[in-house]
Amino acid sequence: MTRIRQDDLITSIADALQFISIYHPPDFIQAMHQAYEREASPAARDAIAQILINSRMCAEGKRPVCQDTGIVVVFIKIGMDIQWDAELSLEDMINAGVRRAYLHPDNPLRASIVSDPDGARRNTGDNTPAVIHTELVPGNRVDVTVAAKGGGSENKARFAILNPSDSIVDWVLKQVPTMGAGWCPPGILGLGIGGSAEKAMLLAKESLMDPIDIQALQARGASNRAEELRLELYTKVNALGIGAQGLGGLTTVLDVKVRDYPTHAASKPVALIPNCAATRHAHFVLDGSGPARLEPPPLSAWPEITWDAGATSRRVQLEGLTKADIATWQPGETLLLNGRILTGRDAAHKRIAELLSRGEPLPEGLDFRGRFIYYVGPVDPVRDEVVGPAGPTTATRMDKFTDMMLEQTGLLGMIGKAERGPAAIASIRRHGAAYLIATGGAAYLVSKAIRAARVVAFADMGMEAVYEFEVVDMPVTVAVDARGQSVHETGPATWREHIAAIPVVIA
Q: In which order are the strands placed within the sheet that holds 142-149?
């Protein structure tokens, strides 16, 4: 009988989580490169280039591809002929591996998990607990798939119970535009069909662990309904023109995955879950011979891509910036920011709102007048870094605070990722402000523009604290200008028309 040792599972979980924080799967790199090669939208092509360059930099520097190092999801299949040599429960062993990975001194990963989710929302400090799905199967091995799922993509999950006669294609094509760009396309869509409500969601999540193979499927043709659905949705979702980072372009999805399960005759449960440009998952098997070993992809797996924003970009000095200066910025224009910016995410905005509502001053040294705020929760620095990977978070979560910040704090503008909602855009227009975006999925690349960092306020909130960054040539795109024009509205609309005229490009 195969004996699986406790520390072999703990070590393997920890090593796998470190591994996927650093290395994209080779199939994802290849698919992104193919998308880059065929992309005709300059803005989308630029975003994909940054993602690929960031990916290679992380492989070389052994640092996370995204500042959001995810909620850990583990699918574990346990052979019924094994014996555990362990004192801890299965859940405790897995969480011990998570803890070891996220507190690794050479590559600390951001702790993003909060307990008491509808109350105090206290950070657990080590990213535990994981979400664990366990299955007992025949055999004498332990089969494990480990994933780290970012909040931006997880927040865009959708579920419905359709009527048996309803079209899944129509439902998906209705849902995807409502997901916006917060899931950092281009990525992968996972679709779960059938079973019950919870089974459909699980099927969708599991499907995201499958390799990217849509081109091979196109070449050989569909052999069942699930494969027909994959091909149809791949073409029709890309025809929406959403594109990389929602800027408009030819590639919104790199693949569509479908898993199904028998269901009740009166039901058609369907779940849709996207995977972002920080696709992170790994598979390993324990057979009693020791911990798993994962081999990094060779650097030759990454394409040689160079990126220089300087030639066509406007350098902006943030000190002394005025609303008159901001009014000259054009939608879609690339800016290189220089100077000091403040940071803040959901928790910081909530605390600021509470202070202002009570008529209390902001903490000493926290002054937003004439400043930009960057929506980011960075990874802790190591070695000679001033800050770890520091990519943008989804800006729509801060929409309800936007008018307060612009009206009451003297803030000039904001930096994040994805689109803004109608109320936030109206506030930006009313105050003559601007909303800029950095590329989601390029966190390590963005961090190289940050030359100094210090905590200014709310240190008790960990990665949600307010920092001051000093940046040099930080690349951003004008997403909403002072007149309220949004590239997340104009870009996809333009490219939807282009794609309709050249359907062969995405076939």
A: 131-137, 71-79, 142-149, 281-286
